[in-house]
Design a protein that fits this description.
The mean pLDDT is about 85. The protein has one helix and ten strands; from the N terminus they run αββββββββββ. The strands form two sheets. Strands 1-2-10-3-4-8-9 form a seven-stranded antiparallel sheet, with helices on one face. The protein is mainly beta. It is globular.
Amino acid sequence: MKGFRTKKSVFIMALFLPFLGVLAGLISGWRLYFNFTYSLPHTVYIGKPSGSFVGKKGDYIVFHHPAYPHKSLIKQIKGLPGDPLILQKGQLRMGQETFFLLTHNRKGEELQPLPLKSVPVGTVFVAGSHSRSFDSRYEKFGLIHQSQIRGQVWPLF
């Protein structure tokens, strides 16, 4: 098991998170963010909110999503404006990346793939590293508009 999911990791986090929180608070504007899902391999991220962040592929970002208005979500940027999206045989391809598509989520609800041919200007394609991650592969989640991005984050552990 990875991340916070082991007893040893929970114990270590219980010891160090208060310290990290104080340290982040001392550094003006920096915050800790937590991921308690399997969509990404890390549990704790640090970042500084920025109103005008323009990311690049591979950056982890924190953003607000209309479906989850009271949560800050973390995903990795996988596609930028102009990147082509090719849907074929249960997969979504973008450059060298291939994303497998699920037909239903864990609740049994049907999932539709993103119906676009390319990433539009002003948006980014985000994804988690887990195959069951709910992310830009799916129409219901969609692409993330630049105005939704709160800033870049870096994994701590």
